[in-house]
Write a structure and sequence with these properties.
- This protein has 240 residues and is an all-alpha fold.
- The chain is built from eleven helices and two strands, in the order H-H-H-H-H-H-H-H-E-E-H-H-H.
- The chain has a domain at 1-115.
- It has helices spanning 2-6, 21-45, 58-72, 75-82, 91-115, 118-134, 138-154, 157-166, 182-196, 206-212, 216-230; strands at residues 169-170, 180-181.
- The longest helix has 25 residues, at 21-45.
Length: 240
């Protein structure tokens, strides 16, 4: 919360169901994570600024990265603090290590979804299970447990492969980094159907919507091509 206040990220004090809450929260998490690990590089590298790391070799960078992961972003580092007496524990350091460890899982999952790596997504499920169980999110805990049971014991290989490669992610662009979760893609479809290319006027009907909906992918491509050719709108596709 303190970091969100410093970043002037308003509206993140409680969960919202309307507006760009998820995107704002994601941006704040990644920015705080970047700041944390920039600080980790200076601490482990024993330098005052990141610019002083330019003289390091690739091998040294690899060694420093391993040291950061081991001492400032791992469960092992947390256990070392827990073994200390309560009077000597550095609570700020403990919270920083806890954040670093957990945010790496978040970023890893986010990147896996972006590039379509369902293998990493599957490997993340046990970690999500412990997180939901520890946070008393009973419904999500049961959902992940049932999914793990099906993936590892009940579903035949053909069904498991179909679920992993056809039911988790979608890619409407063909770009190697253009994957997104099915539910998020469906939200895009709903917005285009209702708002961007929505049918309006006195003749609106379900039949007309059914007739025009299959043309939405083509309309998207035409709009994108027109914007690139004429530059009618100066906007990007990614949040800063």
């Amino acid at each position: 919360m303190h970091a969100f206040t410093l970043l002037e990220r308003k509206g993140l004090g409680f969960v919202q169901t309307q507006g760009p809450f998820h995107q704002n929260l994601h941006d704040a998490i990644t920015q705080v994570a970047e700041a944390h690990f920039c600080a980790c590089w200076t601490v482990v590298g024993e330098v005052e600024t990141l610019a002083h790391l330019r003289c390091k070799s690739p091998g040294q960078f690899f060694h420093l990265a391993e040291e950061i992961l081991k001492t400032l972003a791992s469960s092992t580092a947390l256990e070392a603090i827990h073994l200390q007496s309560k009077n000597t524990q550095d609570k700020v350091l403990r919270q920083s290590i806890l954040w670093n460890r957990d945010v790496l899982r978040y970023i890893d999952l986010e990147r896996a979804m972006e590039c379509g790596d369902v293998g990493i997504m599957e490997e993340t499920l046990p970690h999500l299970l412990y997180r939901f169980a520890g946070g008393n999110n009973k419904r999500y805990t049961i959902e992940v447990l049932e999914l793990l049971q099906c993936l590892q014991h009940e579903w035949p290989p053909e069904l498991k492969d179909f679920v992993l490669h056809s039911c988790w992610l979608m890619n409407t662009t063909g770009h190697p980094l253009g994957f997104l979760p099915i539910d998020k893609g469906q939200e895009h479809n709903i917005k285009d159907t209702k708002v961007t290319f929505g049918t309006r006027g006195p003749n609106v009907s379900w039949a007309l919507m059914k007739k025009t909906s299959p043309a939405i992918p083509t309309l998207r491509a035409v709009r994108k091509h027109t914007e690139l050719q004429i530059w009618t709108l100066q906007r990007g596709l990614h949040h800063s």
